[in-house]
Amino acid sequence: MLSRLRTIVHRLTRHRSTRFTSEGVQFLLFTLAVGVAAINTGNNLFYLLLSMMLSLILLSGIVAEHCLRRLEFHRHLPDVLFVEEPATVSLVIKNGNGRLPSFSLQLFDVIDGQDIDRGLAIRQLLPGGSGLLSYPLTARKRGFLQLDGIRVVTSFPFGLFVKKAFYPIQGATVACPKITPLDESLVQGLVSAGREQHAYRRGHGSDLYNLRLYHSGDDSRNIHWVTTAKTSKLIVRETEAEDQRRATIHLPTTAPATHEAQFEAAVAFTASLMVHLAERGYHLRLVAGDAASSFGQGEPHMIQLLRTVALCERRPPGSAAPSAEASFDTGQAGEAMTIFVRSWDGADPPAGQGVTVLDAAHVVGVSHVV
């Protein structure tokens, strides 16, 4: 019976809680004092004062409950966050009560059962009205960020109680590693190494592939006027196909617990490297743990790669190798540049030629290619 009673009380109070403020405690003690005086003296004036004070306590609870009832929330989270970089979150609150307004509302994010103060407050929400609030959300570590709901708090109307209501409005997003600037010489070295591995061919792009004489039917917009002026012959500029700029990034996810910091540095470096190569027009492919993507380019593909890096988990050495890493072959990349990011000292690069090995422990702030 006792356990059942506790279960019933927990269900009733799971989304509601009430506590006295310091002023409310003082008011309650004064009410008790007036009640004792009324009983001892039998004075009708004390009874009148006692009934008024009890009415205020009852009215305070009823009004506060009406302020917290029938609220509706809609929250919009960005697709991805970056560690230590604030992102804007929008929250829409609507008063579903068509007769009574709500006053003095404070809103808190609930994460892992903890109330997080975002500084959100609404003085008045008219019946049937709605309001739009926005606030910065900053992730402290990479991974899956789960928001459990919204906690609404009010002490209206007399400040005797602090009444709370929980609305389970769940939201989830992914916190990606912080993107940091890389040494320009490191990036240029990787680009140069990649060009040596690629087989150049003409196609649509922006980089120069070849200069040749003009032929009938060539687009006049491709005429290289500087060379034409020097040679007194029509010279056409051919471009290199951009799809030759391809890179496969391999991030092993096996590392001992003693190298947790080194593994996290490798994950953050991989995210920064992908962003820098994407800005240079590379088609990227990622192999991390049991996840392996295809070659792609553009914002949706980059978001997918960043989410994969953000959610990858460290695995102890000696455990069964993830399928993607076990089947990784440098030959699958074709003419793409292959970059192996060493997650710890014992991580061995895959067998094959043309593999560039980067040690994240050394390249943070200093360019170093093994």
Automatic annotation (TrEMBL):
What is the name listed in the Swiss-Prot or TrEMBL entry for this protein?
Answer: DUF58 domain-containing protein
The answer, when asked if Membrane is one of the entry's keywords, is yes
* InterPro entries in the cross-refs: DUF58 (IPR002881)
Glycoprotein keyword on record: no
Q: Which Pfam families is this protein grouped with?
A: DUF58 (PF01882)
The residues covered by the DUF58 domain are 211-325
Annotated TM spans: 20-39, 45-68
Give the UniProt keywords, A-Z. Answer: Membrane, Transmembrane, Transmembrane helix
Look up and give the organism this protein is from.
Answer: Nitrospira moscoviensis
